[in-house]
Amino acid sequence: MIFRTSAKAPRFCAALLASLMVAACAGRPHDILVPSAQTAPGTSRVDLFVATTRSPDKAEPGNMFGGERAAEPSYAAISVSIPPDQLRKIGEVQWPHSSGDPSREMVTVRADILDHDKALKELHAAMRTSARRQVLVFVHGYNNGFDEAVFRFAQIVHDSGTSATPVLFTWPSAANVLAYNYDRESATYSRDALETLLQGLCQDPTVADVTILAHSMGNWVAIEALRQMAIRHGRVPGKISTVMLAAPDVDIDVFRNDERTIGPRSPKFILLVSQDDRALAWSRRLAGKTRLGAINPNDEPYKSELQAAGVSVIDLTDVKANDMMAHSKFANSPEVVRLIGQRLAAGQTIEDEDVAIGGRIELATEGLAGAVGAAAGVAVSTPIATVDPDTRAELGDEIKEVRDNAALATGDPSN
Q1: pTM for the whole structure
Q2: Do 154 and 48 touch, CB atoms closer than 8 A?
Q3: pLDDT in tens, 404-414
Q4: Which residue in 44, 99, 167, 220 is deepest, having the highest Cβ count within 10 Å?
Q5: Does residue 146 sit in helix, strand or coil?
Q6: Alpha-carbon distances, residue 216 vs 67, 192, 238, 280, 291 (angstroms)
Q7: 279-301, pLDDT tens digit by residue?
C-alpha cells in the first residue's frame, strides 16, 4: 500500500470533493483572450510575452491554446487591461463577462501569436525600455487553462508592482481536476522547452537578470529544467539570480536530490510553504510522500537541511487564504503578492517587524520601489509565521466550512 488508511481519510475526501464541486459550479472563463476595443479611464496595462508547449485551440480560438501537447514551442504577445485599483480588490483576478467591462474587469487588449524571431525582436524592444533589464518568468501549476494562466500572471505582475519584463511559460495542463496524471506528464514533457527558454534569456545580451516564479506543479517543471542546465553546462547560468518556489507540488526527497545536483552555485531559492494547503494534502495522499510546499520548516530535518542549502523559507500558514484550497496564497493575498514583488525580489531582508501578531504580513512604507530580480541578498533566518497543529480546525469543521462557502457561491443551500 502506498499509504495507510485512517478514519480521517473519508472526511478529507468529502471536504476535497465539496471543494471541487464549488470550483465546478463557478465554471471557467471562455474566449476572454479575444481583444476588446473598449477603454476606461484609470486603467493600467500589463504586457506579457508567452512561450508555450501547448497546441493551438482550434475548437475555441478565443482561448488561443488548449491542453494538447505541441511538437514545438509557440510564442505570443498578450496585453491585459487592469481596472483602476480603487475599484478592484488587490490579489484577485477580475474575470470578464461577455465582452468585458474594463472599468471593473480585466480584459484582453492584444493577443498575437508570434514566430520566434518576431517574439525575440519585441522582447529586445521591451528590454531597451527597462531600467534594470530584468525578466520575470512565471510557470503556472496544475489544472490551469491557457487563459487562466495569462490572467493570473497579469494580476501578479500588476499587484506586485514589479518593473521586470514578464514572460509566461505555460505548459499543456488539461485544466481538469481529475487529470492530475496527465498534467504531471505534460509538466515533464515541457522541461526541455523551459530549459531552452531560460538558456536563451541568459545568453541574450539585453537581459541582465532572470527571476523564476513557479507555482504548484510548475515547480516540478522549473526544478527539472534547472537540474538539466546544471548537468549539461556544469552550473546554472549566473543570470538566473532567484527562484521563488510557491506551494511546490514536489516530492521532498526529489527536491533534496535535485538541489544537490544543481550544486552550490545555484540561484537563490525562496520557498513559500503553508501547512493548511489542501491541494498539497491531496497530492500527498496520491503520491504517498510529503510535498515540499506543505512542510513545517521548523521541524527537523527540514530546518537544518534548508539552512544548510541556503534556502530562504517563508511560512504562510497563518496568512488568510482567499481560495478554499489555500493553494494560491502567494498570488491572491495582497500582503504576500506585494511582499514577493516589493521586498523579497528587491533583495531586502524580511525583519520581525514586518509581521504582525497572527501571521498577517505588514509592509513597511520605505523601500517599496524594488523590482523583481537581484534577490541574492535576501535573508530569512526564521519562518515569518507558524501555527500550532493543535489549533487547526478538525476536518469535520472543514467540511462544514466548504459546504457553507458552496452555498454562498452558488446561492443553493443544498450544494
Answers
A1: 0.80
A2: yes
A3: 544 444 344 33
A4: 220
A5: helix
A6: 17, 19, 25, 8, 10
A7: 999 888 888 888 999 999 999 99
